[in-house]
Amino acid sequence: MIKKEMLIGDIVRLKPNSIDVLAKFGMGCLGCPSSQMESLEQAAFIHGLDVDKIIDELNKDEQNEEKLNKEKQNKEKQNNEE
């Protein structure tokens, strides 16, 4: 679960696909050294963005991943039972 206090660098390392979500909101400088030490809240403030919307999108993406993983596990279980 992504939180506003987390550092951008940590978010990107934990969830590489977060780069696409952050870029969608206009955070294109994710590779610059200062972004690695900024919290998501700080970066959103600097860019004039709503941090809650970004968090919702990042966590929605995570929830979708979890749902897909569960579906995959269920299919594998069904295949093993046959």
Number of helices: 5
* Mean pLDDT value: 85
What is the N-to-C succession of helices and strands?
HHHHH
Strand content: under 5%
Keywords:
82 residues, mainly alpha, elongated
Architecture overview:
With 82 residues, the protein is mainly alpha-helical. The termini are far apart. The model has no long low-confidence stretch (mean pLDDT 85). Helix content is 70%, strand content 0%. The radius of gyration is 16 Å and the shape is elongated.
What layout of secondary structure does this protein have?
Layout: H1 8-14, H2 18-24, H3 33-36, H4 40-47, H5 51-81
How is this structure best summarized?
With 82 residues, the protein is mainly α. Helices cover 70% and strands 0% of the residues.
